[in-house]
Design a protein that fits this description.
It is built from 12 helices and 5 strands. It is mostly helical and about 325 residues long. Helix content is about 55%, strand content about 5%. The longest helix is centred in the first third of the chain and has 30 residues, at about 65-95.
Length: about 325
């Protein structure tokens, strides 16, 4: 008899969750700890507690020549940002959209809200054509109830407010923002910023969270292009020789994907894959009930080319 319970998650999910939580905490604490922010009051960057004076204020009052401002912009702003961007592109070229699947706070919201909406409606998003099977990869049955709309809406709006305030602290000194917020003394621009960003993010979280990741995020797009440019990059490999084992499965790997992709398909159809590994763990759970290994795993090099062509290259990757 099948038990009724919340599906268990595996080692990959747990590792990602720890990294996602740590990165989200860093996202919130970076401004108040002066790890990284731009101070609009002083017109300069603050990095690891040090002022990176770009010379804007001096230039405004005629103390700093324009040439010095340009040099500061190049060496203190452009080059560090370009270095970080190149690192992101290299990681994506080699391993795919790891930042998205393992660090990005927005993708964390995608996964969390997908699970709550699955409990509330039987579908991970409002745009899913039909409810997904209630039987989970572990064999357990998912509980559904419209009561899950309550935590879903509370989490969406609550996190939208937290995000809006956190984003504001990257431009205005955090102590000013927190003081004004706690004492109901927000200036009109601060109030409008928090209100508008909260509204936009809440709508995104509820209606378009995975669509933003797929079509609206420039960081994700750049990573996807870099990943597609490398035929040997790490990707999800499928053991086609044992594909007959998929016949008695309810497409668990497809159903579990937060980005609503089909992991067994060609790489060009997996452009927005975040390398979260949820499909791998789902397949392992399904096959474990038969005493067999999973049919999905990460592959790279020569084995990754099989994902591009769909043809067997003769190399045993499983």
């Amino acid at each position: 008899m099948t038990r009724e319970a919340t599906p268990q998650k595996g080692a990959i999910h747990n590792k990602r969750l720890l990294l996602q939580i740590a990165f989200f905490v860093l996202f919130l604490l970076a401004p108040p700890l002066n790890i990284f922010r731009f101070d609009l009051y002083r017109n300069n960057l603050i990095l690891f507690g040090q002022d990176w004076d770009l010379g804007f204020t001096g230039f405004q009052y005629g103390f700093t020549p324009s040439s010095e401002v340009i040099v500061n912009l190049i060496f203190k702003a452009f080059l560090p940002l370009a270095s970080a961007g190149l690192l992101l592109i290299f990681v994506a070229w080699r391993w795919g959209r790891l930042y998205c699947g393992w660090l990005c706070p927005h993708f964390t919201m995608v996964e969390s809200l997908n699970r709550l909406m699955l409990h509330a409606t039987g579908k991970p998003t409002l745009w899913e054509k039909a409810p997904l099977p209630l039987q989970q990869p572990s064999g357990e049955i998912l509980r559904t109830s419209r009561l899950y709309w309550i935590p879903l809406l509370l989490l969406s709006v609550g996190m939208a407010v937290v995000w809006a305030v956190a984003i504001l602290t990257y431009a205005i000194p955090p102590d000013v923002v927190y003081y004004n917020l706690l004492h109901w003394q927000l200036t009109l621009p601060q109030f409008l910023f928090i209100t508008v960003v909260t509204l936009v993010l809440a709508l995104d979280f509820i209606f378009a969270r995975h669509l933003f990741c797929r079509f609206g995020c420039s960081v994700g797009l750049i990573q996807g292009l870099a990943w597609m440019a490398n035929r040997s990059a790490m990707t999800i490999g499928f053991n086609r020789k044992e594909a007959k084992d998929c016949h008695d499965c309810n497409n668990a790997c497809d159903n579990i994907c937060p980005m609503r992709l089909k992991p067994r398909t060609l790489k060009r159809k997996m452009f927005t894959c975040t390398q979260c590994g949820e499909c791998i763990e789902a397949c392992i759970q399904v096959e474990a009930q038969k005493g067999k290994p999973g049919l999905l795993k990460w592959v790279d090099g020569e084995c990754a080319s099989h994902k591009i062509t769909g043809k067997d290259h003769g190399k045993d990757c499983f």
